[in-house]
Q: What sequence folds into this?
């Protein structure tokens, strides 16, 4: 079953297209020196980040098409994580060796293939599974996963070079709809000892919750009025915290993040959701 609103997931396909077009235009306008600039990600230059996005487009397109066909397996003919990493690393190297022209062309062409796969989707397709190296995920969630990669890596590229770098404002509302999907996945795959109960996340007027019981995580939106913990922040702070791009203690000190309810559980939830990149 898809836990999240399928109409919202389908609406985010247009946002993926818009962000891709915006980023393609930006890359085409870079002077050659920009491709060697450092990014937020350790050891990554801008060229590395763009090559990662290109191969991600190819991977996502193949995975979704295979899932739609009822054959959810890894792309590129590989059968395990080692093979996946090896093929992707070789493709990244080839793109970088090809220079800016190869990177820009690869980004545009691979994005077009993935967009074609996305635009073929119908509501009944969203619950079908596609295989990621870490497991099977409903195809509906892959839309948000891709939007998240585009927006976060766009920020990674700009962050060292812009004062108070912000997430793409045109994508931020859609990113907020994707965030619960990401957080639920984190809670399902990370230790949740000490987190039994109801936990509310609030970004302005938008709220949702997760009920944790042993290894079970249940999503609810809007959030209930009764809860064990509540984490409140503006949308951008909550996204950057969840993606490991911001420090929870610093956000608490500045007042951008507030914790209410059971203090010990709230702190444990922060440690679980807001893990450093």
A:
């Amino acid at each position: 079953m898809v836990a999240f609103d399928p109409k919202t997931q389908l609406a985010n396909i247009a946002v993926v297209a818009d962000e891709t077009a915006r980023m393609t235009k930006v890359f085409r306008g870079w002077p050659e020196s920009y491709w060697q600039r450092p990014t937020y990600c350790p050891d990554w230059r801008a060229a590395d980040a763009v090559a990662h996005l290109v191969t991600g487009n190819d991977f996502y397109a193949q995975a979704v098409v295979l899932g739609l066909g009822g054959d959810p397996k890894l792309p590129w003919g590989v059968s395990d994580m080692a093979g996946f990493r090896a093929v992707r690393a070789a493709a990244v190297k080839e793109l970088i060796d090809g220079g800016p022209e190869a990177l820009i062309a690869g980004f545009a062409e691979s994005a077009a293939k993935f967009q074609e796969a996305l635009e073929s989707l119908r509501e009944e397709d969203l619950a079908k599974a596609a295989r990621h190296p870490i497991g099977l995920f409903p195809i509906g969630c892959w839309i948000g996963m891709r939007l998240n990669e585009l927006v976060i890596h766009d920020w990674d590229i700009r962050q060292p070079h812009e004062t108070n770098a912000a997430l793409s404002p045109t994508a931020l509302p859609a990113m907020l709809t994707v965030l619960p999907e990401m957080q639920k996945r984190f809670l399902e795959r990370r230790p949740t000892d000490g987190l039994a109960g109801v936990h509310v996340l609030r970004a302005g007027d938008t709220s949702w919750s997760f009920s944790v019981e042993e290894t079970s995580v249940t999503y609810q939106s809007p959030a209930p009025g009764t809860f064990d913990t509540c984490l409140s922040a503006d949308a951008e702070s909550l996204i950057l915290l969840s993606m490991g791009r911001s420090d929870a203690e610093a956000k608490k000190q500045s007042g951008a993040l507030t914790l209410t309810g059971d203090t010990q559980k709230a702190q444990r939830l922060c440690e679980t959701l807001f893990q450093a990149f």
Residues 155 and 163 are 12 Å apart (CA to CA). DSSP finds nine helices and seven strands in the chain.
